[in-house]
Write a structure and sequence with these properties.
The complex is a heterodimer of chains A (154) and B (777). Chain A is α+β, with helices and mostly antiparallel strands. Chain A is 34% helix and 15% strand. Chain B has 777 residues and is an alpha+beta fold. In chain B, the strands form 7 sheets. A 7-stranded mixed sheet of chain B has the order 3-5-1-12-9-10-11. A 5-stranded mixed sheet of chain B has the order 7-15-14-13-8. Chain B has a 4-stranded mixed sheet with strand order 18-26-27-28, sandwiched between helices. Classes of the chains: A alpha+beta (154), B alpha+beta (777). At the A-B interface, helix 2, helix 3, helix 4 and helix 5 of A face helix 1 and helix 18 of B.
Chain lengths: 154, 777
Amino acid sequence: MKIEVTVNGEHQSYDVEPRMLLVHFLRDVVGLTGTHVGCETSLCGACSVMLNGDAVKSCTILAVQADGAEITTIEGLAQNGELHPIQEGFWECHGLQCGFCTPGMIIAAHQLLERNPKPSEADIRRGIEGNLCRCTGYQHIVDAVQYASKKMTT
Amino acid sequence: MPISKSVGARIKRREDPRMIQGLAHYVDDIQLPNLLHVAILRSPYAHARINGINTDAAQNLSGVKSVVTGDDVKDVIGGIPCAATDPEGFPGIKVPHHPVLATGKVRFVGEPIVAVAATDAYIAQDALDLIEVDYEPLDAINSADAAFADGAPIIHEDWDDNMAFTWSIAGGDVDAAFAEADQVVSQRIDHQRLVPNPMETRGVVAQYLPGKDQLNLWSSTQIPHLLRTQISVMLGMAENHVRVIAPEVGGGFGCKLNVYAEEALLGHMAKYLVQPVKWIEGRRENFLHTIHGRDQTGDVELAVKNDGTILGLKYTVSADVGAYYQLLTPAIPTLTGLMLCGSYTFKNVQMNLTAAFTNKMATDAYRGAGRPEATYLIERMIDVVAHDLDLDPLEVRRKNFIGKDAFPYETGTAVAYDSGDYTAALDKALKMADYEALREQQAKLREEGRYLGIGFSTYVEICGMGPSAAMPAGGWESSTVRVDPTGKVTVLTGVSPHGQGQETTFAQLIADGLGVDIDDIRIIHGDTDTVQYGIGTFGSRATAVGGTAMVHAMGKVKDKVINIAAHLLESNPQDIVVEDNKYCVQGAPESGLTLGEIAMVAHVGVQLPEGTEPGLAESHFFEPPNFTYPFGTHIAVVEVDADTGEVEIQRYIAVDDCGNIINPLIVEGQVHGGIAQGVGQALYEEAIYDESGQMITGSFMDYALPKAHNFPRFELANTVTPSPVNPMGVKGVGEAGTIGSTPAIANAVIDALKPFGVRHIDLPLRPEKLWKLMQET
């Protein structure tokens, strides 16, 4: 099936199998491997991307469902060589260890801060509950989101 | 080692820029021309005979390149290795052949049977549906008790029972201790089966280059060199024609400290097909066929005096090790035995272990690997003693602590604790917690029908693994430090970090040691064609052992640099100092030379002192004289909801002592993550197989990994008792959080339920279990 999508600002058309998952489309067809597959069942959040402004789990969406959509992946967050404040926060606060959940976690944090620019710690902990991290115990991730919130609202 | 400008600083990680931008390359991100995708048909039965396999339809599916069964590979791929099978250490051990693909019989759900290579991963999956296997189901065994029951089905028919091996350890005079005791305090304790669950599952890419007879194997592994050796043996290839690369690895926690069927299988298929192949493990496959942790159940008896003095301990335990051994399966419970005395002075100790084959995945090293069992057991039992003798659990701990002047201290299990001050860590944690106020609050809340609990864990653990004599497969580590002509420094380390941050901490050590900007240093690991042989990352050893190897190699480089500098500056080596990253004669900084200037001389080779070899690279292989023994006090404050049984962690205080600290930010991260995993064991996680041997917790829907909102903000501090085992005085911190936290949470929850007469509850402490207990009393 033919689909047209805009990925990280670039508009392109593709011919994909109807059963192809969005995450495989992004990784194997578009070639953006920053989005990871952690569980294939929407439970871990490693595959999170922005689809028309909403954070979605791309492992359980078909590529054809994204026809006409605007998608932002982890590769599209930094602009003109400048890290996004959330990326900066993850670096400054040691918000990652193995890095595998990180792209999805950053996308989830992005959504959270769009909806609630000044979240409390409890808001952050609830806001990222759809994303699993096995390394950090989440505290430095909370710190990273707080860092970004402060930077983005001042 | 003095704390200088870089070592000891909260330096943010050098690994992170690639990871936060989606530019890191994990196994699944590797693309090769003409890559085939492999899917694996796995047993849906825990125990069954295979009477036939028909792969015709799969073979004929368009896009399928190859279908491989156990019969196809049984004569060309050797068995999956186990490094801990010495019958002297494990009397009566049975070592079953462990094939990469099952033939004749399957022994656990998830066991690989057929591999399909196709042009696309979806087609490979389609092909699995077309394979017909004629199974004859057999009765399954889902526990050690069931394995030893009369008339139990036999899993490995070369023998007439399911006993896998026995192991025991004894120290002191246990009988005398129990004869002298005022009381014997007993409890049966279960250490439930856990699934490590790194966020990246396993995965393998293999490529064969026929012109060179070379196999390139990318694997998500913690041990690239050990894997290369084993793969070469399994495939009958010369080891120096096998190159293993651990690319970015998305977490391991011990489960990637192993050699798996798929690694050898993919290597074989790439060579046989002369076409690259990729297999990426699904999460469901990961639950079923990546090693599990823990799964011991045992009876503990403590001989105690009425004042709380512990005289001795007996532990009679059975381990459910699954259907086959993986790399270190039998060795894991031995670590439990070594640490049974915990932080306490009693030396009369005995552990008798019997291990059973069951129809489950193998157990092996999962974060802590044997030591969490020891720590949970002794820390839980201290509270049981306090309960039975009506003493404060803190009083029992203090009464039995090993004093700070007793180190080095030989335990009843004949390990030598390197250094420690257990009271200092406890006192610091108590101050942070404001213990007296917490007890007052607890009493007040109980009157209101609210159940607050305070739990302690005053743990000690064994890490920095370890002396080779005490390890199944080498305990040393290696490093090469080389300086390029322009002064850039490259470190090759035999450890294989996968989240622990050694690209940063090792660079901090080099920056200070050689007088070079941290940005001019590169740490290379995980490629067996590039890096000299090493052992890998596990057992909280990378910095204590691998870092020490690097520091020694760096010392050799520095000696040479100083000799050359002295020659160039017409001075004596002993007068050369490093100031502001310049090698200069003491008192004459203006004449200083940079590392780059000296390195250029070393490589041009004409201005060297007589007898000095050109070039600037040195290697070191470090054999540690002992393990290291981190310790600390964790305090958990929890409230159990009387209406729902839910546990809320209100506060978590951790005072850890991992010796000297190179990067506090990274140490905090290790402790945070460790605590979270230990809390997972205490409250949420359990791998359950039903009576037919089906794993009924095989997804994140049914196996609860902790989430961000399950935790309060951890309150962390350190005491610093340097280790004498290595020149940096570091101990290791990768597992301490996990080892320390499980008993702290368990003790807190059980303390909360004291008004209900609760003395012990097995983990995990899920709401329905607690709610039922509260309803019953």
